[in-house]
Amino acid sequence: MTEALARETQTIPIVFVNVSDPVASGISASLARPGGNITGFSLASSEQGGKWVELLNEIAPRTLRMALLFNPETGVLLQNYMSSIRAAASSFDVEVKVTPVHATDEIEGVIAAQARDPGGGLIVMPGAFNVTNREAIIALAARYRLPTIYYHRFYTGGLISYGANFAEQFHQAPDYISRILKGAKPAELPVQAPTKFELVINLKTAQALDLTVPPLLLSRADEVIE
After folding, report:
1. Interval 160-189: pLDDT, tens
2. What backbone phi and psi angles, to 5 degrees, belong to 65?
3. DSSP label of 69
4. For the chain, counts of helices (H) and of strands (E)
5. How far apart are CA 24 and CA 77, in angstroms?
6. Would you give the distance in Å from CA 209 to the centre of its chain?
7. 64: Cα within 13 Å, side-chain hemisphere
8. Which residues, at least 6 apart from 109, have a Cβ–Cβ distance to it below 8 Å?
9. Which tens digits make up the pLDDT trace of 8-37?
10. What is the pLDDT of residues 195-224, one digit of tens each?
11. Contact of 32 with 190, CB cutoff 8 Å
């Protein structure tokens, strides 16, 4: 939607929210100085990738290998997250493998391969393809008993999720709109990364995978599903 609006006007100010990667999509020249007539609030946070590795290792400490499930055509650029993912993986001595999928029927192969030997895990990356196929991904992760972390809480039924609070950005956007109406230029208002994240743990799924959730991890959760 934001990309379509950007093609229609280069003069009317636009404030976006919940855009995964405004730079990669061509909406913004950079996060610090977006340029043009568009600015807003991005879902991307470079540190988030490391948190996925850390949390999956915490809830499933026997994990030795993590696959990154993403679709190159609809997902965010992996380099946004890879630095923090690699750093966290190195600290936990975990192997990370990039596993692109281009069609729905390829998802099961990735999950089955990760579950074939002990120590497998899965990180479901941001992207429209994974959202569209979230029910299949959750069901396959359960069938193959594969510990999986998701990038947002709307993966209902999944083991654990950690992601930006979408509602927060809608509360922040009016301030940018007010500043623009008072004369500020969108080109000079930096694109802001998320500041509030939600951790959701599904105890029912954890029990099905024979995982004992550490009390400290439970205490940090924003929501625990029983």
Report:
1. 999 988 888 889 999 999 999 999 999 999
2. -135, 130
3. E
4. 9, 9
5. 7
6. 23
7. 5
8. none
9. 888 999 999 888 778 777 888 888 899 889
10. 889 999 999 999 999 999 999 999 999 999
11. yes
Confidence of residue 76 (pLDDT cuts 50, 70, 90): low
- The token pair that represents 60 in the structure block: 């499933």
Q: Which two tokens stand for residue 207?
A: 């029990």
**Tokens 């990309």 identify what position?**
3
Better-predicted residue by pLDDT, 193 or 205: 205
Return d(Cα 171, Cα 17) in angstroms, integer. 10
**Angle 134-143/107-115 helices, nearest 10 degrees?**
30
pLDDT band at 4 (very low <50, low <70, confident <90, very high): confident
- Neighbour count for residue 200 (Cβ, 10 Å): 21
Query: CA-CA distance, 187 to 37, in Å (whole number)?
Result: 6
Q: Do residues 114 and 149 lie in contact, with contact meaning Cβ atoms separated by under 8 Å? A: no
* Residue reference for tokens 């994240």: 197
